[in-house]
Amino acid sequence: MTPIRAATHAAARAAVRASAALTAAVLVVPLLSSPTGAVTVRESFTVPATGSFTIVGHGFGHGHGMSQYGANGAARRGVRHGRILAFYYPGTTPAKTAGWLRVRITDHTSSDLVVLAQPGLVLRDRATRKDYPLPGSIGATRWRLSVSGTKTVVDYRTATWHRYRPGGLATLKGDGAFRAPSGKLTLVMASGNRVYRDRLSAISPVAGSSKRVAVNSVTLEHYVKGVVPAEMPASWSPQAVQAQAVAARTYAWWSRAQAPDRYYQICDTSSCQVYKGYGGEHPAANTAVDATRGQILTYGGRPAFTQFSASSGGRTSAGGAPYLPSKGDPYDAWSGNPFHSWSVKVSESKLEKRYPGIGDLKRIKVTSREGGGDWNGRVGNVTLVGGRASKVVTGSDLRSIYGLRSTYFTFR
């Protein structure tokens, strides 16, 4: 797993959507607000004769860094965004930055990049840096960058497509990009049109390629405005949304530093951060972004890897950096957090089908947890004891098999 792919796996908005999908299978039960003492922790659990049992747990997502529900819980107590960030990323230092970011538009799968026509549209040859103002008097409704052999060609559409020769050239010297005085461009895609700020480019993934990838070159502030409402409800407490803005900005700048020369520096899915461009912006989130303009967190003079997930369940998980420790999280437990405590009834048959060599499942033993003892952290390894054999699996394996919200669980 490369670092750029290790970011958010369960942002708050995604968690809310997932909650609806899990309603039929998951029954939220009223456990105590603190994981310690909430239930009897069963590190060695005998599977009942009925073949069904209950998994009880806490949190939603990997638990590294900031709990988004925890940030909102803290903000509701009056904690300012700077203190929220200092709690979830201890040892980091506030800093300021600005610049541009190249974002891969994952849903765009065609080598043809099409934008809606608008007044003042400009085409740039990225090899020569020469700009070509595109005419508005020819009745074009769309402009297209496509590929002929390995070269970029330009077309416009009226009733049909027509070839356009910028500066009299049959092809561009390099890849092409569009920008407009409005600062916004509408990208035409099979999945639906989307509006992006700044520039849209059709970039060759490698020199001499016949393929092109859609990339949005965008200022850092415009990028964060397209991220925040996709990762956290903009209606949440303003200080929580501001904390999200700083975490998202920092993560983007960290990602940029991992691949400064690559044709894209970050993707637009939850494998990186969800980014929906100008069309995904929200006024309240924009206010939070503007209020924290340029703010990032650094560690050792470099952007921090500011991971976040929906809910820590009352304890964050170690994330492989000094500022991503495993620690108690008192902010995560509040009445508005549906993911702090949860329970799901499951069947042993799923494990027996996945691991048929064990035979009839008799016992489940939690053999390692992050940090050691009961409820000190997420499940590392589990031993499945069957009638024929035993099998060691990970907490992540069980999470995947049963669709659990996190690996912070025990058995009942």
Task: Give a verbal description of the structure.
This protein has three domains: about 30-60 and about 340-410, no CATH class; about 65-100 and about 220-310, no CATH class; about 110-210, no CATH class. Residues about 1-35 have low confidence and may be disordered. It is elongated. About 45% of the residues are buried. The strands form six sheets. It has a seven-stranded mixed beta sheet. Strands 12-11-10-7-14-15 form a six-stranded antiparallel beta sheet, with no helix packed on it. The two termini are about 35 Å apart. It has helices spanning about 10-20, 70-75, 80-90, 220-230, 240-260, 285-290, 350-355, 395-400; strands spanning about 25, 45, 50-55, 65, 95, 100-105, 115, 120-125, 130-135, 140-150, 150-155, 160-165, 175-180, 185-190, 195, 200-205, 215-220, 265, 295-300, 300-305, 310, 340-345, 360-370, 380-385, 390-395, 410. Helix 3 crosses helix 5 and helix 5 crosses helix 6 (about 285-290). The chain is an alpha+beta fold. The protein is about 20% helix and about 30% strand.
Q: Briefly, what is this?
A:
The protein contains eight helices and 26 strands.
Question: What are the defining features of this structure?
Answer:
six-stranded antiparallel sheet, about 400 residues, single chain, seven-stranded mixed sheet, elongated, disordered N terminus, alpha+beta
Strand order of the largest sheet: 9-8-13-16-17-6-18
What's the shape? Answer: elongated
Name the poorly predicted regions. 1-34
Q: What Rg is obtained from the alpha carbons, in whole angstroms?
A: 25 Å
Question: What amount of the residues lies in strands?
Answer: 25-35%
The total tally of domains equals: 3
> Which bin fits the share of residues in helices?
10-25%
Structural class, from helix and strand content? Answer: alpha+beta
